[in-house]
Design brief:
By secondary structure, the protein is α/β, with parallel strands linked by helices. It has two domains: 226 residues, 3-Layer(bba) Sandwich (FAD/NAD(P)-binding domain); 175 residues, D-Amino Acid Oxidase, Chain A, domain 2 (2-Layer Sandwich). The chain has 16 helices and 17 strands. The radius of gyration is 21 Å and the shape is globular. Bound molecules: flavin-adenine dinucleotide.
Length: 436
Amino acid sequence: MSIDQTMGRMPIGFQSVDRVRETVTRRIIDKNTRRVGAPDYDSVVVAGNGIGALSFAARMARSDEFAGKVTIVAPPIEETRKLINGVSLRGRAADYISSAIGCTHTQLVQAITDYGSGKPACYRQTSSMAAQGRDGSWNFSRIGAWQGGHGGSDRPIVYGARNSRVTGGMWDLMADLGIRHIEEKAESAERMRAMANGTRPLLVNATTNPRLLGAEATTPVRMVLAVQVPFMVKPGGIAYPLQSSSAYAPLIRRNGIIDVGYFTPFADPLSPRSTWYGIFARVVDVGSGFDKDEELAIMTDELFGVGDALGLEPDDPDETLARALVPAAGFWGAPASAPGTLELKRAYSGGAPCFYADGMISAALGGLLAAEAVMKGDDADRVVRRALRPLRWHNYIWWVETTRIAVVADALMRLNVNLAMAYPHTAGMRLWAASA
Ligand SMILES: Cc1cc2nc3c(=O)[nH]c(=O)nc-3n(C[C@H](O)[C@H](O)[C@H](O)COP(=O)(O)OP(=O)(O)OC[C@H]3O[C@@H](n4cnc5c(N)ncnc54)[C@H](O)[C@@H]3O)c2cc1C
């Protein structure tokens, strides 16, 4: 489909900035998928209600071939104030989600944050090392801007939004796409097949259950520990090195591994007093004998302590604070799906989640590209695997820097942040910022 045909389906009110975003996204689709023939399927049944599932389902439902033939099987989204899943949504991920749903960036950001696109966004990313002194106070080495330079980019780099509102907002925007929603947990391939609106359905697994359609589950070799909370600004205002409209990543070296912190502008209709959010994440090897509770307690102290030094206080942490231990998938490749099925979650999940803000962009792009591949009769597994390779590679390098050469990374960060973060972090701007 040409860009003009695609744009013909876009809502009135598309501005030139939306046109650029859609054009760039379409170029990525065209580069990664090719028409092989008619689709092998006449309908799809998607299990799951995350960003990957919804991007896939929305794009399929907007096609001529699959309109009215898309079923989602999943419990309704449960929205609570707790920050259970990813919050830092890359601007480029918003491009992909908007393209899948057929809405503008502004409509998407409005739906997920209740604000226009400017407020809960960062236009610049800074970083430095952080360390706690003997008196308990936090000290920060000289910061550097690794994306957006001194003045900031003219494109949004990251939005801060609660994950369950991102998916809730996506559902709201998808209300008119004719998708049938069966509000229950998917149980088996047989039951999913019986729910199809067609005789040759593709069954899609975008859930956290890798065995749902009978596939083998792999044993993780790494885990990610993470703590995150929404923050309110203290009466004195934010404190350097935190700066308005900028995300700041404080890095703490502890026992040979760097705890990766990230503070970025944020908006959540359920926590309206919070205008920032913060996270600390740490990747550990499964066999390293780490004590989960002790680690999460230390990281919560880091989160609250660094937040306090930045002029922030947690917003109702009893209700909003999330502590997670998440298995990390392998960095490279995933086996092909069994015939008649698509292991979508497995195809787009690679590397360590939580610590490089790449989980949601992978799900959004993976869902969008898989839909385009299915519509063209192409191999969705291969398409997603290949297209996501640069994201995986950057995740891998960040993991090496923060867990395998943490001493060197620490020294380089203190010497020159711009040099330390040049590749792939600054160089990878096109995988972060919106394309316009
Ligand atoms: C603490 C933490 C911090 C993170 N930080 C970031 C970040 O800053 N930026 C970023 O991009 N990513 C981050 N991530 C990763 C990001 O949240 C995920 O990669 C992303 O949300 C995955 O989305 P998904 O579409 O794969 O589905 P998920 O969000 O994993 O959703 C899968 C859904 O499937 C449903 N489900 C399970 N079983 C069934 C069933 N049998 N039938 C139907 N439905 C079922 C579940 O209820 C779930 O809602 C973070 C993750 C965590 C845990």
